[in-house]
Amino acid sequence: MKLKEMVNLTNDIVQRYYKNDIQPFLEHVDERVLWYGPAKGQFLSGRQAVLDAWAGEKHSLTFILGNVRLDHISSHSSYCEVMMSFPVTTHYPEGDHVTMDQIIHITWCERKIEGEKVPRMLVVHISDLYHKHEADNIYPVHFNEVYKGYMPVTGAENNRRIYFHGTDSADLYLIPDTIIYAESIDYGRHSMLYTTGRAFRVSLSTTTLENEYPEFLLRCHKCHLVNPAHIISISRFKVTLSNGKELAIPEKKYTAFRKNVNNILAKKCIPPSAASIK
């Protein structure tokens, strides 16, 4: 069982799960699966119980996932644990939304079926625990309380994500529009990506990021790259970003940086009023 393949498979299945394409998830459920969550006390034992629960599930909910982090460990060649964390916004037909930080923990095992080794989900634990309405099956269709603590996940509409390897061996799938700026760390060997949610340590240098992603990461300083879409203002000699962070711009680079920002914003058809550039 190759860990990288299992991470990719987990990411693909869960992404499709939240597009209401549940079939790939069900196809990988083991005959002896244990399923817990997302509702408090919601426990299913065995593949047939999971299939029966989903057969009775009817809803008109849609979901948007934010930046995704996957961590994994393995104690045996035929088993591995994958933990996936991300914010997810549930949109209700009435126009309400609920955004929660979700964690899904999956234990994968290897089964021999018709002479071929195939991956199967042995344990599925979905962490965000809400009180289950007696009329609900899987999703909280009758869940009327709408949390206002988080803004809805944005920037994921085009479903584009970029893969990064975390310095702690995590696998990261980040939405470019959510990246506000990058900072050089570990003596220039790695970078910290600051997003609209949390910060992520990645194994690439800011030089590599600048070269690979010039369309949304622009250097303003030897230690910093910024996403022009998150620039609120540029004034001598600093740039203010959407999260309130102010970064210095060297005087010798100020004119060129300001010109580059204007060119990028023009190509993206972002109105001049979106950023105050002096």
Task: Describe what this molecule looks like in 3D.
It contains 5 helices and 18 strands. Strands 1, 2, 3, 4, 5, 6, 7, 8 and 9 form a 9-stranded mixed sheet that branches. A 5-stranded antiparallel sheet has the order 12-11-10-14-13. About 3% of the residues have low confidence. 18% of the residues lie in helices and 40% in strands. The chain starts with a helix and ends with a strand. The chain has 2 domains: 124 residues, Nuclear Transport Factor 2, Chain: A (Roll), CATH 3.10.450; 116 residues, Beta Barrel (OB fold (Dihydrolipoamide Acetyltransferase, E2P)). It is α+β, with helices and mostly antiparallel strands and 278 residues long.
Strand content: 35-45%
Largest sheet: 9 strands, mixed
Low-confidence segments, ≥5 residues, pLDDT <50? 144-150
State the order of secondary-structure elements, H for helix, E for strand.
HHEEHEEEEEEEEEEHEEEEEHE
How many domains make up the 3D coordinates? 2
- Tell me, what's the shape? elongated
Derived structural class: alpha+beta
Helix fraction bin? 10-25%
Number of DSSP helical runs = 5
What's the CATH architecture name of the largest domain? Roll
The count of DSSP E runs of length 2 or more, i.e. the number of strands, is 18
**Radius of gyration computed on alpha carbons:** 22 Å
Measured distance between first and last alpha carbons: 56 Å
Q: What is the topology?
A:
Layout: H1 3-17, H2 23-27, E1 29-36, E2 43-45, H3 47-55, E3 62-65, E4 68-76, E5 79-91, E6 97-113, E7 116-126, E8 162-165, E9 171-174, E10 179-185, E11 190-195, E12 199-202, H4 206-212, E13 218-221, E14 224-226, E15 231-235, E16 238-241, E17 246-248, H5 254-267, E18 276-277
Parallel strand pairs: 1-7, 15-18
Antiparallel strand pairs: 1-2, 3-5, 4-5, 4-9, 5-6, 6-7, 8-9, 10-11, 10-14, 11-12, 13-14, 15-16, 16-17
